[in-house]
């Protein structure tokens, strides 16, 4: 079965992003500001999946923008900006997770277990958010990029630097876990 997203033409928004990237590469500061205005909310929302904290998510998104700013001149295919930006966020987010895990391991005594998560709310939006938050980071990112950001399997593979088959596997496991978590919450 062919993914409908991969057969469609680029949207006007994607074409506009591509134009903005070309303009940024030519030194247009206003184009960078417009690209930021169009993408910052999406990158911050994805960053929240790594951090679970709004303030840390904004900081992580800003680190991502620094990476975008430094690397956009080398982006050979401006149409791939979406994958490029999420790949930077993925690398910065993975660094954040590693640092957080190290801090928790150092600060938590061996006999102390992490607190159990709160049961999901009956509100569907909160239940889905809680279920996504409970996924392991790689499954969570794949699910976020696919279901929320609308990236294709190939784009997710590029962002996470993994084969497409691994993306399919991660989405399969994410769906299964989300379904189980959402079934429990109802």
Protein described:
With 186 residues, the protein is an all-alpha fold. It has two domains: 11-110, Rna Polymerase Sigma Factor, Chain: A (Orthogonal Bundle); 122-186, Arc Repressor Mutant, subunit A (Orthogonal Bundle). It contains nine helices and no strands. The longest helix has 27 residues, at 81-107. The relative contact order is 0.11.
Per-chain topology:
Blueprint: H1 4-7, H2 12-25, H3 29-51, H4 54-71, H5 81-107, H6 124-133, H7 137-148, H8 153-160, H9 164-185
Helix pairs in contact: 2-3, 3-4, 3-5, 4-5, 5-8, 6-9, 7-9, 8-9
Short description:
The protein is mainly alpha-helical. The chain is 74% helix and 0% strand.
Briefly note the structural class of the backbone: mainly alpha
Q: Which fold name is given in CATH as the topology of the largest domain?
A: Rna Polymerase Sigma Factor, Chain: A
Count every beta strand, where a strand is a DSSP E run of 2 or more residues: 0
CATH architecture of the largest domain: Orthogonal Bundle
Helical element count?
9
Percent in strands? under 5%
Query: Into how many domains do the coordinates divide?
Result: 2
What's the overall geometry? globular
Assembly type of the shown chains? Answer: single chain
Helix content: over 70%
Q: Outline the low-pLDDT stretches.
A: 108-114, 116-122
Largest β-sheet summary = none
- Taking the alpha carbons of the first and last residues, their distance comes to 32 Å
CATH superfamily of the largest domain: RNA polymerase sigma factor, region 2, helix turn helix motif
Rg for CA atoms: 18 Å
């Amino acid at each position: 079965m062919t993914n409908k997203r991969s057969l469609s033409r680029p949207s006007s928004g994607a074409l506009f992003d591509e134009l903005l990237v070309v303009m940024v590469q030519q030194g247009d500061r206003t184009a960078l500001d417009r690209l930021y205005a169009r993408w910052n909310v999406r990158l911050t929302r994805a960053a929240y999946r790594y951090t679970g904290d709004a303030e840390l998510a904004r900081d992580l998104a800003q680190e991502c923008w620094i990476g975008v700013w430094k690397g956009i001149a080398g982006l050979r295919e401006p149409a791939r900006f979406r994958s490029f930006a999420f790949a930077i966020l993925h690398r910065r987010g993975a660094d954040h997770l590693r640092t957080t895990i190290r801090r928790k391991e150092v600060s938590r005594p061996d006999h102390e277990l992490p607190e159990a998560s709160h049961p999901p709310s009956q509100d569907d939006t909160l239940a889905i958010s809680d279920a996504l938050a409970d996924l392991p980071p790689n499954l969570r990112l794949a699910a976020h990029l696919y279901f929320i950001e609308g990236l294709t399997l190939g784009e997710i593979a590029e962002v996470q630097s993994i084969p497409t088959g691994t993306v399919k596997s991660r989405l399969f496991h994410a769906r299964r876990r989300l379904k189980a978590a959402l079934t429990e919450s109802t």
